[in-house]
Amino acid sequence: MQSSKQGIIMPNMSLEKNKMPMLEANDRIHSFDEVALGYSEEVAVLEANRCLHCPNHPCVEGCPVNIDIPNFIEHIKNKDYESAYRVISLNSSLPAICGRVCPQESQCESKCVRGIKGEPVGIGRLERFVADNHVDEEINKPVSNGHKVAIVGSGPSGLACAYELSKDGYDVTIYEALHVAGGVLMYGIPEFRLPKKIVQKEIDRLVKLGVKINTNVVVGKSISIDELLQEYEALYLGTGAGLPNFMDIDGEMLNGVYSANEFLTRTNLMKAYKDSSSTPIMKGDNVAVVGGGNVAMDAARSALRLDAKRVYIIYRRSMEELPARKEEVEHSIEEGIDFKLLNNPVEIIGENGHVKAIKCIKMQLGEPDERGRRKPYPIEGSEFELDVDVVIMAIGTSPNPLLKNSCEKLNVSSRGGIIIDDSGMTSIDNVFAGGDAVTGSATVISAMSAGKNAAKEIKKRLSNLVI
Ligand code: FAD
Ligand code: SF4
Ligand code: SF4
Fold it and tell me: Residues 403, 236: contact at Cβ < 8 Å?
């Protein structure tokens, strides 16, 4: 706040959000270092002072986990960052992550009254500031209440569920198929957007609370749901939506065609970008990424950092319909990604079994479809070829059918999502589910919200049981 002559405290009425310091585009395209550097204390306090502490605080409604936003921001104004952290922690177990990757522009910040005339308060940036400046406290393992719960999948949904249960003394074990916990936070979202040490810190906090993590266990293969139910009173399935979709066009089996999931896993989880890594990856001089979401931007920007000379984003609609976060699109443009909009691939052309080019057709937009998005139509005779040696498909993912195939009692929708009732319970008694495994690919915070809500239901059910 600023003092007026009469001594009345005035808010900072600047119409613009304080800028986030960034690595320069020319420097960052040669490294996987984090691009956004975070607010300094001085800038964080300035930004916090843009908040009007509205009595009806519409921003809170825009946050899927309802963080008390004006309250945590008030503590920043008073430079009491640990109190700010405590307010956020009441509702979110992963603030350093959400402050970085939440699509704030369509969530909390979309409801901020400062956004009516000017830019909204930088809520996400302030959340990140608080989390990054938090001093780790001594974590005491809560006293056990004797109830045992298993969680399948260690993505944000499983981690949020584990946090909510373990802090109340539940004995929680996470089963994870990969060799590392964290789900998409570890294998999908690149280091330059979300440093892995930050995710690991959150996981370590859970372990200190007493959560056990069994990696390299594929539930449905190594152990069944029924076997888990013999040992645990309740299960939470947070298995995500990791099965990549393809376009079903000629050439998708050629060498040099990746799903974005595989390309990003090799890069992020298996560290293919490091000289010391033995993970094979086809880097490609000219790379085409098909799709327009966050995953496509992440794959394109990673390909660039793996020394590609030219990277194209091929998307069948226009810039206006691009589903990726605005910030990610801006960063991609700054870094020199070439957006081939209103184009759709029709074939991947090969030579000696390897990708040589991608054939596309130009598109035009018609009337809005049932979801309000204008439908793209091909323009007859407008095909053209782009010379590329790597193609990355980033056109969406679906829940993996493995769990369903291993357990007939588990009801899933025609799109593969696990069906749950209003309490988050599946067709199997005491087996809950949430996150991308239910909704299909969504957001970190919505997956966390589902995990947290399921934990509350599990607590309600189990607390009525006599041990
Ligand atoms: P996941 O994170 O997918 O975790 C599921 C876990 O379950 C995985 O670790 C998997 O290995 C494990 N698993 C699966 N099956 C089994 C089994 N049978 N047995 C044991 N373990 C199993 N969201 C945002 O909000 N902002 C972003 O900027 C953003 N960027 C993204 C970028 C990429 C590249 C991707 C892929 C997604 C992005 N998302 C983003 C979406 C977001 O990451 C997901 O919505 C979120 O991670 C879903 O969380 P989840 O816990 O449901 O699943
Ligand atoms: Fe906004 Fe996400 Fe933080 Fe909620 S968790 S306040 S939506 S940045
Ligand atoms: Fe502050 Fe905006 Fe929320 Fe009002 S709506 S309390 S200004 S963050």
Answer: no
The verdict on pTM exceeding 0.85 is yes
- 265 three-class SS: helix
Pocket of ligand 2 (CB under 6 A): 63, 65, 67, 69, 92, 98-99, 102, 104, 107-108, 123-124, 127, 445
- Residue 104's pLDDT band (boundaries 50, 70, 90)? very high
- Using one digit for the tens of pLDDT, what is the confidence trace for 65-80? 999 999 999 999 999 9
Cβ(112) – ligand 3 distance below 6 Å: yes
* Residue 355 buriedness (CB in 10 A; 0-12 / 13-18 / 19+): buried
Expressed in angstroms and rounded, the spacing between residue 115 Cα and the centre of ligand 3 is 9
- The Cα 455–Cα 447 span in angstroms is 12
Phi, psi torsion values for 272, nearest 5 degrees: -60, -20
Ligand 3 neighbourhood includes 46 CB (under 6 angstroms): no
Structure tokens at 79: 């430079």
- What average pLDDT does range 127-140 have in this prediction? 90
Angstrom CA distances, 389 to 178, 218, 286, 293, stand at 29, 34, 6, 22
- Do 313 and 338 contact (CB within 8 A), yes or no? yes
Kind and range of the H or E element at 174?
A: strand 171-175
127 contacts 60 by C-beta, under 8 angstroms:
no
* DSSP H/E element including 327: helix 326-335
pLDDT tens digits for range 251-297:
999 999 999 999 999 998 888 888 888 888 888 899 999 999 999 99
Does residue 127 contact residue 38 with C-beta atoms inside 8 Å? no
**Given the structure tokens 């966050």, which residue do they identify?**
294
pLDDT digits (tens, 9 = 90+) for 10-61: 788 888 999 999 999 999 998 999 999 999 999 999 999 999 999 999 999 9
The DSSP output letter for 114 is: G
Q: Write down the pLDDT at residue 284.
A: 85
- Indicate which residue's Cα is closest to atom 1 of ligand 3: 51
- Buried/exposed 399-417: b ≥16 CB within 10 Å, e otherwise: bbebbbebbeebebeeebb
